[in-house]
């Protein structure tokens, strides 16, 4: 693709739109993972977490052709993302530095990078496809995603502090994203492609399952505190 040609600009616009649509999920998980950190560490976690996630995503973009050949990749990533969505909404005490509820900087960083790597699969595939093999467009796409995720995370974090219910909404968004990844798995194409009912049933089960499991996980500690 010729640099700065009409086709190049068209591809760049497509990449920016992909980043705007798909980076929202990443901003949500970063904000939720950082919400329990002390105030002076929140911005640090967002910036460094996004930087680490971009490094991971860059490596994934370089190997996108190889990734496409791995059977079951989207399905496995979706299942793992469901677990992360559950852990984000389940308040099990908030002292596990290895979980999404971590109150330590490195605990939050770990969650951010892992979750972004899982959710970044659809972003990487979309950007690589829109770039049509143009490496400069792939690099621009990665650079564009950085401010979108950083500023989006800060906005979500401020809203979470004022409206805690956004935690449940964020977990629902992540669960829906996970379900879309599972539905997009080529090995399961015969199950979901011909049936819209099967697709929407999976979306509903994933969202309801994550929120329901999170509610059950928080119910016990709350009853103990009340007692």
From TrEMBL:
Its main location: membrane. It is a multi-pass membrane protein. The chain crosses the membrane at residues 6-33, 45-67, 73-90, 137-157, 169-188, 200-218. Keywords: Membrane, Transmembrane, Transmembrane helix. Pfam families: TerC. GO terms for cellular component: membrane. It comes from the Bacteria. Signal peptide: none annotated. InterPro entries: Integral_membrane_TerC, Integral_membrane_YjbE. It is found in: Membrane. Belongs to the TerC family. This is TerC family protein. The lineage of its organism: Bacteria, Pseudomonadati, Pseudomonadota, Betaproteobacteria, Burkholderiales.
């Amino acid at each position: 693709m010729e640099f700065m040609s009409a086709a190049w600009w068209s591809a760049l616009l497509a990449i920016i739109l992909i980043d705007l649509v798909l980076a929202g999920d990443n901003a949500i998980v970063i904000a939720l993972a950082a919400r329990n950190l002390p105030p002076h560490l929140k911005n640090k976690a967002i910036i460094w977490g996004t930087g680490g996630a971009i490094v991971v995503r860059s490596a994934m973009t370089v190997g996108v052709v190889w990734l496409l050949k791995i059977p079951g990749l989207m399905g496995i990533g979706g299942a793992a993302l469901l677990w992360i969505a559950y852990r984000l909404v389940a308040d099990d005490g908030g002292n596990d530095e290895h979980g999404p509820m971590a109150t330590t900087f490195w605990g939050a960083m770990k969650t951010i990078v892992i979750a972004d790597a899982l959710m970044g699969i659809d972003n990487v595939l979309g950007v690589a496809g829109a770039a049509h093999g143009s490496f400069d467009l792939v690099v621009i796409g990665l650079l564009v995603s950085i401010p979108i995720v950083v500023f989006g995370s800060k906005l979500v974090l401020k809203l979470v502090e004022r409206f805690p219910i956004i935690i449940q909404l964020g977990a629902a968004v992540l669960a829906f994203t996970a379900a879309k990844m599972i539905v997009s798995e080529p090995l399961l194409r015969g199950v979901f492609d011909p049936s819209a009912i099967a697709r929407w049933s999976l979306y509903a089960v994933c969202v309801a399952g994550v929120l329901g499991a999170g509610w059950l996980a928080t119910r016990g500690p709350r009853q103990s505190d009340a007692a």
